[in-house]
Amino acid sequence: MASTERIRTLGRVWRSVALLYALLIFVSWPCAVAGKKKLYIGALFPMSGGWPGGQACLPAAQMALDLVNNRTDILPDYELELIHYDSMCDPGEATKLLYDLLYTEPIKIVLMPGCSSVSTLVAEAARMWNLIVFSYGSSSPALSNRQRFPTFFRTHPSATLHNPTRVRLFQKWGWTKIATIQQTTEVFTSTLDDLEERVKEAGIEISVRQSFLTDPAVAVKNLKRQDARIIVGLFYETEARKVFCEVFKEKLYGKKYVWFLIGWYADNWFKIKDPAINCTVENMTEAVEGHVTTEIVMLNPETVRGASNLTSQEFLAQLMSRLGGKNPEETGGFQEAPLAYDAVWALALALNRTVAPLRAKGWALEDFNYNNKEITAEIYRALNTSSFEGVSGHVVFDAQGSRMAWTLIEQLQGGSYKKIGYYDSTKGNLSWYGNDKWIGKKNQNSQPYLNNMTAVGCVLALAAVFPLGIDGLHIQRSQFPVVCQFRLWLLGLGFSLAYGSMFTKIWWVHTVFTKKDEKKEKRKHLEPWKLYATVAVLLAIDVLSLLIWQIMDPLHITVEKFTKEAPKEDLDVLIQPLLEHCSSEKMNTWLGVVYGYKGLLLLLGIFLAYETKSISTEKINDHRAVGMAIYNVAVLCMITAPVTMILSSQQDASFAFASLAIIFSVYITLVVLFVPKIRRLITRGEWQSEQQDTLKTGSSTNNNDEEKSRQLERENRELQKIIQEKEERVTELRNQLAQRQALRSRRRPSVPNQNQNHSVPSSHAEPPSYSPATDKQSLPPSFSNSSDLYQGEGKLSRNNCHNSRLPLLYK
């Protein structure tokens, strides 16, 4: 019995031992399998703010991490783990989060921020901790500065990569003047500075440059006032909605305008309800229609399997699964998600390449700390030489750590974006689909049809020189009336076409830019057919007057007899000199009517040319050259008409004077109007604006001083009204404050302050959590002596970060 009990007890012991052994195996097995050393990545994903790119970029990065950690050929002894926060695309918030990342265990081997403003802060501070910064969504050109950001890389190319594409499109469509409007942040300011340099090299002028901080209303109004047509907009998505709400109010959209925007907004960014604007979705949809976007090619268009063994379409399918059925158009950063995915892969491949070199030096990746420059240098070298196929295309970095890529050109047509081309800035190749809409292919600013009319008129006037030199010696007497008709009609029609088209241009410019504002706005967008109709009216008046003349009193031959002369030879004869004229019964009356009408047109043309000499307009940009031609024609005509009447009896002098006047006026007009165009066509291969080179005088300034003065006066009056309202509000608030202070002084008990001389003013009191210290052990050793950076401050925590000390991390 005892032995049986002993056997049972022994069995229970063995079962307990076996169970304990199995438990130990069960517990230790995952540790053996998952015995990888962890490497931590500190990431900032903006889930809200100006660019909520983290909504799609975070799931994409986590997808990449899962795949990398399951690969046995990439970092087999390590596991990458992502520690991430929401930066809200705000540098202030990012400062606090960066503090948490740096001063909270575990040590991070790499930092991954998004947003240019946040990346600027992080990359500038990271050099102090020997940290590599790898961004997936930063486009600021300032980040390409290797001296300022020596450890920065990004899979999102620099925003300056858009500018060669924009300039190429300006050249393709023949635009010579553009306008810009930007949000005043570093990324857009530096992008615009780069654009300004590039358009200057291409012979393109930025005529209007506007900026705003939070409210774009005044900037958009200024674009409207200055007649901007080709507009480049640089701002974040939230500000884009504000801008186009104002664009709708100012009617700064439609077929007469072309907007160039950034392409990394969400596809339905203009349909998202925003409490910051008071425009409906229909208003916004109407205002944004037809705008052009330039964006980096972020999704590989080819079906190839890269380093992750996924095609771009397979990546999108898996990403959609991770997003849980969310609408991609309403998910921030969906377009940039491939860049975040490839950023993780680029980092993993680079870290994998550092394992062997570090092992040869006796180091390992897990030995990294914020003082180890050798490991940082190895990671830098590996990233700098990275080259692989990703879901966003071929991944390679330039000397500044920026991604090199193609540019995609899209246009919003019918509420959705359509691809219209690609541009390879490295080779200058523009691949065009040809399905662009509402975009003019040639520069119509000089109204070429009016120029053609001027040229035809000049040809007719030159043709009139030949019948002027024909007399009875060359033709029969019966044919002479026909020659008279040719003289009259060729000169009349030639003058109407040549001078009439120039007069129409100068009249339209004067009508628009010298009237009151309300009339100017009504007539500022005069259609070209109205200009042609004006020339037709002037031509019809000439045709009608000449017809009436020829019907009522047709031209015929008259013979003027001179005093008989004796020949030099001794002959018993006298010679009767005769001179044949083209005349009619009331020749002086008809000439008076014609000369009076033409003279008034010439005087009015001179007046209009003088009045508009310093006006700059986008619609007719060669009006200064037209003004010079009008001066030339008017002066020669006013001199020639009376002189030829006086010299009518001296046929040789009269013909010479009239023919030379016609030839000079015609050729000077043609030279002034067309030689600058021909020169630009030869040297640049395209028609350019005549404003810059036609006249090298003070009157050829690009901006109308008088117009600018009037605009400044209007703006000054508006600002004075605003200042007056603000002053009234300030006065009101001061009165309220004075009343409250008086009320408090009556309520406050009068207690004598015996320690008045030793008291500390409350305004200088330190915050409750402030505790000065001189202990520098919490700082990285390489910066413990950096007195001018930390100024003897002690260790800070997130909860007691005083505002005055937040910038210290990135000064």
From TrEMBL:
Query: What biological-process GO terms show up in the record?
Result: gamma-aminobutyric acid signaling pathway
**Which Pfam families does the annotation name?**
7tm_3, ANF_receptor
The family database entries (CDD domains) matched by this protein are listed as: 7tmC_GABA-B-R1, PBP1_GABAb_receptor
Topology versus the membrane: Multi-pass membrane protein
Record has Protease as a keyword? no
Ranges of biased composition (kind: Basic and acidic residues):
705-715
* One GO location term (cellular component): postsynaptic membrane
Which keywords label this protein?
Cell membrane, Coiled coil, Disulfide bond, G-protein coupled receptor, Glycoprotein, Membrane, Phosphoprotein, Postsynaptic cell membrane, Receptor, Signal, Synapse, Transducer, Transmembrane, Transmembrane helix
For the G-protein coupled receptors family 3 profile domain, which residue ranges apply? 444-697
Q: What subcellular locations does the record give?
A: Postsynaptic cell membrane
Composition skew (Low complexity), residue ranges? 733-742
One annotated GO molecular function:
G protein-coupled GABA receptor activity
Spans through the membrane: 13-35, 488-508, 529-552, 589-610, 630-649, 655-675
In this chain, composition skew of type Polar residues spans 689-703, 751-762, 771-789
- Which InterPro entries does the UniProt entry name for this protein? ANF_lig-bd_rcpt, GPCR3_GABA-B, GPCR_3_C, GPCR_3_GABA_rcpt_B1, Peripla_BP_I
- The UniProt annotation puts the region (Disordered) at 689-715, 730-811
Instruction: Give the family per the record.
Output: Belongs to the G-protein coupled receptor 3 family. GABA-B receptor subfamily.
* PANTHER family assigned to the protein according to its UniProt record, in alphabetical order: GABA-B RECEPTOR, GAMMA-AMINOBUTYRIC ACID TYPE B RECEPTOR SUBUNIT 1
Q: What is this protein called?
A: G-protein coupled receptors family 3 profile domain-containing protein
Q: Which organism is it from?
A: Cyprinus carpio (Common carp)
